[in-house]
Structures are given as C-alpha cells and as structure tokens.
Design goal:
Number of helices: 15
Number of domains: 1
Number of strands: 0
Structural class: mainly alpha
Order of helices and strands: HHHHHHHHHHHHHHH
Largest sheet: none
Distance between the termini: 36 Å
Helix content: 55-70%
Length: about 375
Amino acid sequence: MGDGRLRLTSGPLNAHADIQARERAGQSLARQANDIARDLTRADPKVYWLDLVVTAAVTWLAFAIAATAAQPGWTVVAGLVAILGLYRGISFIHELTHLKRDDVPGFHFAWNVLIGVPWLTPSLLYEGVHILHHAKDRYGTARDPEYHPLARRPLHELAVFLGIALLAPVGTLLRFGVLAPLGFLIPAVRRFTIAKASGMVINTHFSRDDFDRANRAPWLAQEIAAWLWCWTLVGLTISGVAPLRVFLTAAVIFSLMTFLNQVRTAVAHRWDNDGEVMAPLDQFLDSVNVPPPALLPFLWAPVGLRYHALHHLMPRLPYHNLGTAHRRLVEALPADHDYRRAEERELIPALGKLVKRMRRASRP
C-alpha cells in the first residue's frame, strides 16, 4: 500500500487478510486526510449566514414571481430559480446535522424559520437520523436509514426510487397536517409517526427509536409550528383568501426540488453493498465525489454535496471548506491513490454507470 492504492488478493484463504488490509487502508486514508485538512474543520459563521439569507431571499422572491406573474415565461423562469434556490436552502439541513449549535449560534433556529417550517421540512426530520448513516457499523447495512442497495436491484426500482420523490408535497401535508395533530391525541399514532414518518430516509424498513427526542422543546416547537403552518396554508386556500395558484405553485416547486435531490442521491453512492458491515475503505469507495472541472454540481449538488465521499471521510468539515480540502488531498496524494477512485465526472455519466450496474444485477 505504499502508493496509497490497495491491491487485494482473492480466494477464501485470503479473505480474512483482505478484510484486515481494507481496515488498515481505510484507517490510513482517514489519517492522511486528517493530517492534510484538520485545520479546515472550523465553520465560518459569516459564510453560513450570508449564504442562508441570500438563498432564502432569492427563493422567496422567485416563488412570489412564479405564483403571481401574468406571463407564462416569467412563471417558468422564476419557478426554475425557485426550485434551485429552495434546493440549496433545503440542503442546509445536512449541515445542521453536523454543526454544533455553538459553531454558528442561532443558525438552526433561523434555518427552520426561513426554510424548514415554511416548506414543511423542519430539521427534526433529519437530525438524529442522518448521523446514523455515518456510523461505521451501520453504513450500508439494514440499520442504515439512508442506504438502499440500488445497484443490486432491478432497473425498474430506479424509476420508483426517483418517481416517489414527486409525491413529497402529499407526504409532508399528511405528516404535519394530519398525523401531527392526531398523534397528540392518540399515543399509538404518535409512536407510529415518530418511528415511521419523522425521518428523511431511503431505507423503508428503518424505524426511529429516539422517542425521548420527540418530547424535547426543539422537536415540539418545530412540529407544532409546521402543523399550524400547514393548517394555515390549507385554510387560506380553501377559504379563497390565498389563490389556489399559490398553493399549487408551491407544491410543484417542492415536488420538483425533491425529485432533483433524489436524482442527486442516486449518484451520491455506488449502492453496491450486500448488507454486511463494510470496512472504512469500502464505505469511502462506495461514496462519490464530483469535483471540478465539472461546473453543474454547483446547482445539482449544492452546499458541498458534490464532495460526498470526502464528507464521509471527514464529516466535520464545513461545506465551504470541502473544495479546499479536496484540492489539498489531490495535490498531496499520488494520482493513483484510493482517494481518486471515488470520483465521477458528472451527473449523467454517474447515473449511466448506476443503470449499467443495475442491468448487470438483473441478468440471470
């Protein structure tokens, strides 16, 4: 492993040695990355606040134009801007999970006020769930809430995986407009809602069991606020105070934004694990970076999501330092190092590779 690239032997006699080698390789890569980029783990509050405020302002302005413009052309253009703006804004929920609250004081609250609650996606849906995806003994297994072995599934499952995201507006309305108030009245509904309807997950078999968290003030405040906001939106629309167009425009924007995120998710990992616990190196290589010179990831993988493999290697790196960390690693490590094996050129080529893997898996 002197050149940083792991070369494995094959055959049952060498299986145990290979596993140990992969363990050592993963630990070595993590140490190298930490040595090179440990000074980049500090979040810059100015970057977070400026990005959030500008993103929220652009999103809401574009939404207002899309919902009221008389010209169809303006509606479409503003709608596209709103989709991309909301996508960037919602993507900050990932940062919230890894940020300590004193890293950027007040940011969690502000994000929920500006983005999370108004779009019925409060951070309670991600906090306490996403962190499990990073647990070394959970990643890629049946206990990982954010893993589904797509590459081992029939091709039609990709269409289902992507298409179901379009129903997100229905899901959020049911979650906060129906299940939330019912749950406060019926304990059994409450337990079901927390376990099965309170997480942004991919693994449909996953159930939350952190019921104590759901009784704490931050969760309750977000949930009640989203419930009341949901009822307000529906009430204003039914009563005619707010035009139906506003409600439908919001639903379409949210639906397409969620679909875009689902497409991005489809190429964030290789999705090739069989359910067994993976060595750290395999977890890294099952994840994907889409670094420059690709330009479009700024839009389809915002807030650092283009460096997903690097994020799994160093989860505490704030999004605004991932690019710098990646450049340092590329400059410091050999060209054939394991780190470079996690790279993809762009969205479409990466998606094409997933389709090929799924087709191979479907062959008898």
